[in-house]
Design brief:
With 310 residues, this protein is α/β, with parallel strands linked by helices. 40% of the residues lie in helices and 15% in strands. The chain has a single domain (7-307), classed as Alpha-Beta Barrel (TIM Barrel).
Length: 310
């Protein structure tokens, strides 16, 4: 099978649903993950093994992992904050663990309840057991492009955290624009800088569309050499611990963009649009995605009747 030109990783079941005020039933989450795997995703972030008090929307993580129909072509990812979460993810059958620490100390304390040294100690406790169980470990740097409390984070800080992650033996790294503060110029420069430390097939970019720059930032990162990107069906998501952080880059909008400019994603856009159209009923409100509302560019409409005789 031909490798895609750009790899899109689906995060709606975890990052998308974590902020929803209405609890999505376990069976519905399972159906969503199964439908996404059938649409062609090679990687899906399924849920998060954190305290149910902290993220009640994902309190059923074990049940979701236990209910999905495993597609052998799909990697099922779990977010974990510590060794206890990693042990739960291993027992549930996750294929990869995603660990998160914010570049911003303030945001890390708000999001994870830990200082940097505590988070790094937690990561050191995760990598060994995960690798021993056959799981890969990805480590995310949240607020890599800016923090709503501290502002822009220096490249030197991001570079240092990348090196610390690599020294712990992680298999991949994500740069996350948690609050949508990135812009194409900064994205280009940071991606080029980090690619000196991390190969493109091990680096993921995670953008939010908070200020309408999500797709532009994806293109800037791709042109700078990035290959892997997170996105969420319907544009769902946002960080509950970051003021004003709205949803992720919308998966189907990104796939449509790639189709229009000739980048192969290996994903079925028709299936994604059909699935995205079911989200308002699932979560109880409209979603930010645009293509599901407007249709694809060449979804043509009938000629107005008054013009047909002319």
């Amino acid at each position: 099978m031909r490798a895609p030109d750009i790899l899109i990783q689906e995060v709606a079941p975890r990052d998308g649903l974590q902020i929803e005020p209405v609890f999505v039933e376990t069976a519905e989450k399972v159906r969503l993950v199964d439908a996404l795997s059938q649409a062609g995703f090679s990687r899906i972030e399924v849920s998060s093994f954190v305290s149910p008090k902290a993220v009640p929307a994902l309190a059923d993580a074990e049940d979701v992992f236990g209910g999905i129909r495993r597609n052998p072509r799909t990697m099922y990812v779990a977010l974990v904050p510590n060794r206890k979460g990693a042990e739960r993810a291993i027992a549930a059958g996750a294929g990869e663990i995603n660990f998160v620490m914010s570049a911003s100390e303030t945001h890390n304390r708000a999001n994870m309840g830990m200082r940097h040294e505590q988070s790094l100690a937690a990561l050191s406790d995760i990598v060994g057991p995960a690798h021993a169980a056959g799981l890969s470990v990805n480590a995310t740097i949240a607020t890599a492009f800016g923090c709503p409390f501290e502002g822009i984070q220096a490249f030197t800080k991001i570079r240092r955290i990348v090196r610390e992650y690599l020294d712990f033996g992680v298999d991949g790294i994500t740069l996350a624009d948690t609050t949508g503060m990135a812009n194409p110029r900064r994205v280009e420069h940071l991606v080029q800088d980090v690619l000196k430390q991390v190969p493109s097939d091990k680096l993921t970019l995670h953008f939010h569309n908070t200020r309408g720059l999500g797709l532009v930032n994806v293109l800037a990162a791709h042109e700078a050499g990035a290959f892997r990107f997170d996105a969420a069906l319907g544009g769902l998501g946002g960080c509950p611990f970051a003021p004003g952080a709205s949803g992720n880059v919308c998966t189907e909008d990104l796939v449509n963009l790639c189709d229009e400019i000739g980048l192969d994603t290996g994903l079925n856009l028709t299936a994604l649009l059909q699935l995205s159209a079911t989200l308002p009923q699932l979560i109880g409100h409209e979603v930010p995605g645009q293509v599901v509302k407007a249709g694809r560019p060449l979804d043509l409409h009938p000629v107005p009747e008054k013009l047909r005789d002319g």
